[in-house]
Amino acid sequence: MNKKYYALEQKENEANLFIFGEITSWKWLDNDVSSNDIANELKNLDVDTINVFINSYGGEVAEGLAIYNTLKAHKAKIKTYCSGFACSIASIIFMAGDERIMYNSSMLMIHNPWSRAVGNSKELRKTADDLDKTTQALINAYMSCISITEEELKELLDNESYILPSEALDKGFATAIEGDEANDEQYQSARKFIFNSIKKNNRLIEKVKEVENKVQEIEQKESIKNDEEVDYLSTFLNAIK
Questions:
Q1: H and E: helices and strands count for the chain
Q2: Where are the domains of the chain?
Q3: Which CATH architecture has domain 6-199?
């Protein structure tokens, strides 16, 4: 096979990488994508920015994760573009971008990984367990970018969800929509900061619950000897709500 499955263009301090095919270790078509070739091509690439344009229905999970991690490990700034569809494991490659840009006419699709299995009941149960661990690896990649909870993400994966650009921007899968001035990067950065702050404040929420329980415990006593403690805790609760 003489033709490459992708086209790598380099100009000054930027390089453009086009992934427009199936993600697979068994390359049959000219546009099939292998993680090994991507790694070999990028390891000596000395640029400040790599633009990765993606149009793929997905493919092998292992190959996609290898491409994702190779891009994440590169010293250059990674900008991923959903040029058409970024489905299945191709959506994970899209997540490798420091900036993740969609077009109004593009779409993501995410779902749980699947496999074929033969054998006895123990072997089939092991396959299911292995798939659960594979799913968690994908979840980890999504959660490094998105601004929804893991429970919400799992529901999207269970439902094999197609995600339009506006929804992708709102949930943090994308950081910008090309040509849509209403959704700028500063808004998304602020939104992600707020969401991450809320997640980090889970400990504070638990502390509030402990204080509320303490107040109720004191108030329920037949004889309250420490009115000042009740007043203090009540003031604290009112201040942080």
A1: 9, 8
A2: 6-199, 203-240
A3: Alpha-Beta Complex (3.90)
